[in-house]
Specification:
about 220 residues; binds adenosine-5'-diphosphate; binds the ligand Cc1cn([C@H]2C[C@H](O)[C@@H](COP(=O)(O)O)O2)c(=O)[nH]c1=O; Thymidine_kinase; EC 2.7.1.21; thymidine kinase activity; ATP binding; nucleotide-binding
């Protein structure tokens, strides 16, 4: 039976690499797929992994109707066994509903990949809907690590190495950028709560603007 699967994790935990591997493995067995992505760091209509591999993809925008797109291709005689959807956190909730319909009505597997939460620990719309609808949510085995060595569970946005909590939900960017740039850093919850990045930990600085949990008794 076809499935809607959400492979989730923090930034930099290997989601795009897995997307490319899954496409490769399915193709190797004669299956035909379509690759979609939205706002990949490497540019439009490309799915890229930090391991250096990349492939062409269909760029998703707000107007794309996945179901209509797939039905059109099938009507033109295409064979489609599966869809790979990277950066699925950026999809609209309605687009995730369309993906579920593709699985149920067209018996096509849909493999989605994305981060669950933004730099403020809030669910992205696409991820929220995937958690609601997916047959399976798989957390990636490869653990990204916080600077302290604990498993990283949260994504921090940094400016000059310092964690920020204001700004637009979507700002395309990367980890390991130079310290004067806007970037991202994966942290364990403890250090995300304390807004303690590698740079501020090195400098022995704790942001004075602490998160609300800080005053909670027992913490
Ligand atoms: N030079 C390297 N050597 C080995 N593994 C690397 C190297 N650079 C990146 N990686 C691996 O690639 C992962 C990031 O892969 P990627 O698919 O780009 O992540 P995601 O899509 O989850 O952001 C890292 O967690 C690390 O395991
Ligand atoms: C936390 C967070 C991330 N983003 C962006 C930054 C990257 O362009 C992608 C994640 O890509 P990856 O392949 O998983 O590394 O999401 C954002 O726009 N807003 C955020 O809060």
């Amino acid at each position: 039976m076809a499935e809607l699967v959400f492979f989730s994790g923090t930034m930099d935990c290997g989601k795009s690499t897995l997307a490319l591997q899954m496409d490769h493995n399915h193709q190797a067995r004669g299956r035909r797929g379509i690759i979609f992505t939205r706002n990949d760091r490497a540019g439009s209509a490309i799915l890229s992994s930090r391991l250096g591999l990349s492939t062409e993809a269909v760029e998703v925008d707000d107007a794309l109707d996945f179901h209509a797109h797939v039905v059109k291709l099938l009507s033109a005689g295409a064979r489609i066994d599966y869809l790979i959807c990277d950066e699925a956190q950026f999809f609209r909730a309605e687009q995730v509903d369309q993906l579920a319909r593709i699985v149920d009505d067209l018996a096509i597997d849909v493999f989605t990949f994305g981060i669950t939460t933004d730099f403020r620990t809030r669910l992205f719309p696409g991820s929220a809907r995937l958690i609601e609808l997916a047959d399976r949510v798989e957390v990636l085995q490869v653990e990204a690590l916080c600077w302290c060595g604990a498993r990283a569970t949260h994504n921090a946005r940094t400016v000059g190495g310092v964690m920020v909590v204001e700004g637009a939900q979507v700002v395309v960017g990367d980890v390991a950028v130079s310290e004067d740039q806007v970037g991202y850093e994966v942290l364990c919850r403890r250090h995300h709560r304390k807004r303690m990045t590698a740079a501020t930990a090195r400098a022995g600085v704790l942001s004075p603007d602490v998160l609300p949990f800080e005053g909670t008794p027992g913490r």
